[in-house]
Design goal:
single chain, about 600 residues, mainly beta, eight-stranded mixed β-sheet, flat
């Protein structure tokens, strides 16, 4: 799918997969039919790179934010620009639709948040009050509330329907880094530079509690799956567990000797893991706040942590060349997986949690039994840093992409290297299995995409044609199509079964940074640095639309849930909403 004249910054599929939107540096948004590859519309109007794009849940609208300080609303079906939402005097950094798609929120560098009606393009409200760039916006699950966090140290709660600022949550004395709604939307948490976490009632705007105790910036906040606990990690080397309903600090988890950079709950919410720069991982009981174990022994910062699907095992990979497998219930370090001679960059559990894979800078991959800690196999053969690892959906195959320009397919159960997929002449930066696990795609710096049979390791096709490094690969929801975006400013649509290049989507005049299929797979969107977004029909390869108007690289594109709208965000500070079918720019 060609046509873009700039890097694609954002791509997004509609919920039904019928449309794909791409926002790019060529200042345009393109609407594509991912099934045929046809570009329905080139949504023009943005005068700067599009940074962000988002579809409404029903897919009837597409929003795009860009550097030109505008948001555009498009009808992804027709490509019509319904509205150019003007008023922002700074780059639009974030756009988000409410759960029902009736409202669109945008946060920008002009210190404001705007609430729009994506159907009419009417700016319902310009939410003013922030005295600094709005860094994040989030709707509650039911879409009844909108929260925004900014560098002015405040959080604001808005009614997206009326645009009314229900509350300006003050109290933070530093930039707000993170905001998160509880799963049920009854609580809102915010973490900031002032070392505090605040718990709010998004309905009333009441600050239930100012969670104090941290003596360092709060970098991360996370709710447990049931919303009964809130965890915060901070620069004071501690983790705190809170009751978001009462605001009570249940426990201050101390022991870390360095800033806590990440916190994560197990799937069942019974355990909380925290990784810090002190090279340790801690396992906590979020209900009691008890530190079950301080997992020490790492001699390097924890770079990756992951729970097994059932939450019975916890793995951590670090720059000290080791991987540790823990029992999150007891905190016992079941195994210190040694053998890597380079930083562990990637760790992944198989879907059933029976196997664990780690890829590292020592050019090897290790397959482990997370229950026993046994290293089943040291997968050797890569002659370069292993950048990416991925399990097939059924967990029967494991793929790895590395700096030696190869992809390897492994049997995670036996550790057997089924195939060394050679042919790439550049580092493999991206690997992806088809939904059914029958095909495997790899994109690399040699400007090619390869389609493999993960069962036999056979290279079905070497998809050539790209004249630049392949930066992104994505399968359609049904696995019948495969899209690749590259530095040569083109997008290619492939048949992963035959390896046939169905279409070379041309038109972008800048590197394609992002590609995404609509939920139904009927459309493909691409975003590029040429400031445009293109909409394609992946089946025919036809460029349905070249969405122009952005005045900056398009960094993100996203389809609405029903695929009827496409949103693109760009560096021109605007968001555009397009009709992917017609290519019309519904709104800027």
């Amino acid at each position: 799918l060609e046509g873009h004249n700039g890097s694609v910054y954002s791509v997004a599929f509609s919920a039904d997969g019928q449309r794909l939107a791409s926002g790019a540096g060529d200042r345009t948004v393109k609407i594509w039919d991912p099934a045929s590859g046809q570009c329905f519309q080139t949504l023009e109007g943005h005068n700067g790179s599009v940074y962000s794009v988002a579809f409404s849940p029903d897919g009837q609208r597409l929003a795009s934010g860009a550097v030109d300080d505008t948001v555009k609303i498009w009808d992804p079906a027709s490509g019509q620009c319904l509205q150019t939402l003007e008023g922002h005097n700074g780059s639009v950094y974030s756009v988000a639709f409410s759960a029902d798609g009736q409202r669109l929120a945008s946060g920008a560098g002009d210190d404001t948040v705007k609430i729009w009606d994506p159907a009419s393009g009417q700016c319902l409200q310009t939410l003013e009050g922030h005295r600094g760039s709005v860094s994040s916006v989030a709707f509650s699950a039911d879409g009844q509330r909108l929260a925004s966090g900014a560098v002015d140290r405040t959080v604001k709660i808005w009614d997206p329907a009326s645009g009314q600022c229900l509350q300006t949550l003050e109290g933070h004395n530093g930039s707000v880094y993170s905001v998160a709604f509880s799963p049920d939307g009854q609580r809102l948490a915010s973490g900031a530079v002032d070392d505090t976490v605040k718990i709010w009632d998004p309905a009333s705007g009441q600050c239930l509690q100012t969670l104090e105790g941290h003596n360092g910036s709060v970098y991360s906040v996370a709710f447990s799956a049931d919303g009964q606990r809130l965890a915060s990690g901070a620069g004071d080397d501690t983790v705190k567990i809170w009751d978001p309903a009462s605001g009570q600090c249940l426990q201050t988890l101390e022991g870390h000797r360095g800033s806590v950079s990440s916190v994560a709950f197990s799937a069942d919410g019974q355990r909380l893991a925290s990784g810090a720069v002190d090279r340790t991982v801690k396992i906590w009981d979020p209900a009691s706040g008890q530190c079950l174990q301080t997992l020490e022994g790492h001699t390097g910062s924890v770079s990756s942590v992951a729970f097994s699907p059932d939450g019975q095992r916890f793995a951590s990979g670090v720059v000290d060349d080791t991987v540790k497998i823990w029992d999150p219930a007891s905190g016992q370090c079941l195994q210190t997986l040694e053998g890597h001679r380079g930083s562990v960059s990637s760790v992944a559990f198989s879907p059933d949690g029976q196997r664990f894979a780690s890829g590292a800078g020592d050019r090897t991959i290790k397959i482990w039994d997370p229950a026993s800690g046994q290293c089943l196999q040291t997968l050797e053969g890569h002659r370069g840093w292993v950048y990416s690892v991925a399990f097939s959906a059924d967990g029967q195959r494991f793929a790895s992409g590395a700096g030696d320009d190869t992809v390897k397919i492994w049997d995670p159960a036996s550790g057997q290297c089924l195939q060394t997929l050679e042919g790439h002449r550049g580092s493999v930066s991206s690997v992806a299995f088809s939904p059914d696990g029958q095909r495997f795609a790899s994109g690399a710096g040699d400007r090619t995409v390869k389609i493999w049979d993960p069962a036999s390791g056979q290279c079905l096709q070497t998809l050539e044609g790209h004249r630049g490094s392949v930066s992104s690969v994505a399968f359609s929801p049904d696995g019948q199509r495969f899209a690749s975006g590259a530095g040569d400013r083109t997008i290619k649509i492939w048949d992963p079964a035959s390896g046939q290049c169905l279409q070379t989507l041309e038109g972008h005049t800048g590197s394609v940074s992002s590609v995404a299929f609509s939920p139904d797979g009927q459309r493909l969107a691409s975003g590029a640095v040429d400031d445009t977004v293109k909409i394609w029909d992946p089946a025919s390869g036809q460029c349905l639309q070249t969405l122009e108007g952005h005045n900056g690289s398009v960094s993100s594109v996203a389809f609405s849930a029903d695929g009827q709208r496409l949103a693109s965000g760009a560096v021109d500070c605007t968001v555009k909403i397009w009709d992917p079918a017609s290519g019309q720019c519904l709104q800027t």
